Input
Amino acid sequence: MILNRQDFEEGTAFELYVLETVRPAIEPHGGASIDLRGSATVAAVNVSISESISGQALDGLKDQLSPLLFGAAWKVLDLLLEFALSAAGLTPARQDWSIAEKQRHASNGQGDRAVLGCSQGVWQALLSVYANTVEHRHCLVHRTAKVDPATGTLDGVDRNQNPLRSLTRDQQVALAKAAALAARGVLRGGIDKRSEDHLKYQLDQLTLHTGAPAFGVGGASAPVDIYLAPHENGVYFLDMTGVLERARRTFATVAHFDILVDVPDGSARKLFGYAENCPPGRSTIDLAALPPWLTYR
Output
């Protein structure tokens, strides 16, 4: 059972890693980003699986990975709901929560949304997409889910053999983003407005599965990633000189940018921060004592 934030962090660590690492590689149109690690010139790139394999094989691999991404996202929402139910003082009928119990509570809008700190509308949409994709999760786990090889759409049937509402690859990616945003909000002790606006945008891509009206948040709320080089001659630093200005010229309609810096310790971790919170110019980074505007991810 998930009783506190530490339980949630431990319970979702692997799934969150998968969502934030694998998801950009399988987005249907690529994850737009700016890579400044090897050049002073801004270059808009798409994060994707290596194209050294054939296009057909690449699409097939993405089709196989997308449902696994959905499974990781659903697990994060499942444990978020457990945490919220515990925070609301609710307990399972037996020692552990059954999915059926959690689905009923989600359908009834229960759970303490303070664990995420989001608005009531966002919380209701998250609960609804969880409750309305329980059968999709069962199909995935029991290997009865079907993926359209042409589109990556996930289909299945419920326990009465009725067809489920399809989950397109775009919707699977939106759910992955939504789950990751929600998880990070919980881990930070509450989601901030910037991230909640982004979460609303992703939930707007899932209205067929939430049954909720769209929030009407535009795509400008979805941040673009900026990759920066972490060190030079053994000194670790972040150099923001001209970065935001150049990024805004490249993505004129984007409101927010995220900074991602490779951690040079072989762990595959990255330093993460909101670009607008990073100080201008060059800042030396102590990897053992990060400044408040950077976190490990």
